[in-house]
Specification:
The protein is α+β, with helices and mostly antiparallel strands and 566 residues long. The protein contains 21 helices and 19 strands. It has helices at 2-24, 49-57, 60-69, 78-86, 91-98, 133-152, 193-203, 214-222, 236-250, 258-269, 299-302, 334-348, 351-366, 373-376, 405-414, 452-464, 473-478, 492-505, 512-522, 548-555, 562-565; strands at residues 42-46, 100-113, 116-128, 155-161, 165-171, 177-183, 186-190, 230-234, 272-282, 285-294, 325-329, 380-388, 397-402, 421-425, 438-443, 446-451, 485-490, 527-534, 538-545. Residues 17-24 and 561-566 have low confidence and may be disordered.
């Protein structure tokens, strides 16, 4: 019996020692914000690929796609994933099971392109592998070469040593670059040397990191980021900066005016604070939450903008069931909401900036042919709907209930909008006589207005597809009287791209027939619903969809030359 007891004791010690080694060798999660510059424009973090893979495996849309393709819906083996996480596996498997990722927009460059300016983002991907440098160097260099070849086609790569180990790849076709550095357990991949250097300086302690930003930590707590797959953040200073680049386009002006951008950035900084985002698994799909923080003094003043009212069902008879996207505005009084927004903004700004923002608010309705909102909005009542009939339409159209059709017709026809506006009474039939940049169609106490091509798309789709006589099923699921806007969007393109990318990573390129089969199998769930509301921090937007923003980010893995190779 003694030899048997000794054998059992030895076996128990081996098991305990093995378990102890596996537990000791499991990496501890780090704060990836400590790896990127404090002044990063946009920051995204992803802390566990296995967790994301498990969520996708439980996703109803993914299960339907996998069944259609006759492929395994499982993306990982839990047992081997645990082994790899302990380090007892090939380097590639170890890294994939352990790695944390941070994707960061470091800067934006303006590059002359003929008579226009082309914006070139400087982006870096930081990977904390939790694995020794000697073990990942060869694997990382090979991965960068493969990534460059996948993205750019033919490319040449050079390895060099310095304060870190570098791999530089450039396309032999257009000279585009992909660069990487390996420093300890960290791999930094970027499209410019500036992006690489910025993150490496943080790593080496010569530049402050984003982890020191108290606003970021506050945003994490507010959105419970610890339980999410991903987290995104834009600081208040950079929200204002990004707004200053985008606003001129909304105002119909070309970007690149330094004085205007500075004025916009200064003004936006007084109103907008940080923006944060999380993504998590929810009921067989994904939920993305966005928090757009506002200045605390502004919050009470914008409450009238978010005062809501329940929408009736009769509006849906004018919304084609095949519309690409539509947004229901449950605002109680459209004109009061616009004036409240104007007043709240003016409270925080100087006179010049207030006039400029007032012009920006007015121009938001110009795309529908509304020259003077103060004349038109008193004549329409909630609900308001904006919809885009086809994905190829340049803009959406506005659908609104009208309380004085004849007065509205008179005002619209007297406007001097560029290109003119033509009013059609649909009870007398559709008329293609004359030409105008904008159309306004009067029907059953409603008006549909917008750019002529977009209104024409709406009318064509209305004639060729059914319309709902009551609230669509998708909206019934999201019906919320506290949401000032509810948006439905056809998500089939992102779903198809996501499934295609997953299969591409598995080494399988979908045929046209397979892609069509996936679209057909997932069409019942290929939509997203977004609700917006005001809370005590700012504007909160919640989107429920099959794969969330992860599907958009995954599509970035598609190569630039993929279309050419199909």
């Amino acid at each position: 019996m003694k030899p048997f007891r000794a054998l059992v004791t030895l076996l128990a010690l081996v098991i305990i020692a093995g378990a102890g080694f596996l537990l000791w060798n499991r990496p501890q999660r780090v704060d990836m914000a400590g790896y990127v510059p404090a002044d990063s424009l946009v920051y995204l973090e992803f802390n566990s690929l296995p967790d994301l893979a498990r969520a996708i495996e439980q996703n109803d849309t993914w299960k339907a796609a996998a069944k259609t393709l006759n492929t395994d819906s499982r993306l990982i083996d839990p047992f081997w994933s645990a082994i790899a996480r302990s380090g007892a596996a090939p380097a590639k498997s170890v890294v994939l099971s352990r790695a944390q990722f941070a994707l960061v927009l470091v800067g934006m460059n303006s590059i002359p392109d003929g008579d226009t300016l082309r914006i070139r983002p400087e982006v870096a991907l930081v990977v904390e592998t939790h694995t020794a440098s000697w073990r990942i160097r060869t694997m990382a260099a090979d991965a960068v070469r493969s990534l460059a070849a996948h993205a750019y086609g033919q490319s040449s790569c050079v390895e060099r040593a310095g304060d870190a180990y570098y791999v530089d790849c450039s396309s032999s076709i257009n000279g585009r670059k992909l660069m990487a550095t390996i420093d300890g357990s960290v791999i930094i991949i970027g499209n410019t040397e500036t992006a690489i250097r910025a993150c490496l300086d943080v790593r080496q302690g010569s530049r402050p990191s984003l982890r020191t930003d108290p606003e970021l930590q506050r945003s994490r707590e507010q959105l419970n980021a610890a339980g999410a797959f991903s987290f995104g953040y834009v600081s208040s200073a950079n929200v204002a900066k990004i707004f200053s680049w985008a606003a001129p386009v909304l105002m119909g002006r070309a970007p690149g005016d330094p004085q205007l951008e500075q004025l916009l950035a200064t003004s936006a900084g007084k109103i907008l604070k940080s923006v944060a985002w999380t993504s998590r698994s929810l009921s067989g799909g994904m939920e993305d939450r966005y928090l757009i923080s506002l200045d605390s003094e502004l919050l009470p003043r914008v409450e009238p903008v978010f005062a809501t009212t329940a929408a009736g069902d009769d509006v849906w008879k004018h919304v084609p069931s095949g519309a690409e996207t539509f947004t229901l505005y449950q605002v109680r009084n459209p004109l009061d909401a616009l004036n409240a927004m104007n007043s709240a903004v003016s409270y925080k700004l100087d006179a010049l900036s207030a006039v400029m923002f007032s012009s920006l608010l007015r121009s938001s309705l110009a795309v529908y042919g509304v020259e003077n909102p103060n004349q038109v909005l008193p004549l329409v009542t909630s609900p308001l709907v904006t919809l885009r009939a086809k994905a190829t339409d340049e803009s959406s159209v506005l659908l609104a209930r009208v309380n004085d059709p004849e007065r509205l017709r008179s005002i619209l026809e007297s406007q001097k909008v560029e290109g003119g506006i033509r009013v059609i009474d649909l009870t007398k039939g559709w008329s293609n006589e004359g030409s105008a940049a904008f159309l306004a169609v009067m029907l059953d106490g409603y008006v549909v207005m917008g750019k002529a091509e977009s209104v024409d798309s709406w009318f064509s789709l209305t004639r060729s597809s059914a319309t709902a006589s009551e609230t669509p099923a998708a909206f019934q699921q999201a019906k919320n009287e506290n949401a000032v806007t509810i948006t439905y969007a056809n998500d089939s393109t992102r779903v198809s791209s996501f499934v295609s990318t997953i299969n591409l990573l598995r080494g399988n390129r979908l045929s046209d027939e397979q892609s069509a089969a996936v679209l057909n199998a997932t069409k019942a769930s290929s939509f997203s619903i977004t609700e917006s509301r005001l809370d005590d921090r700012g504007i909160e937007r919640t989107t429920r969809s099959p794969f969330g923003q992860m599907s958009t980010l995954m599509s970035l893995l598609q190569s630039d030359t993929s279309a050419e190779r199909k």
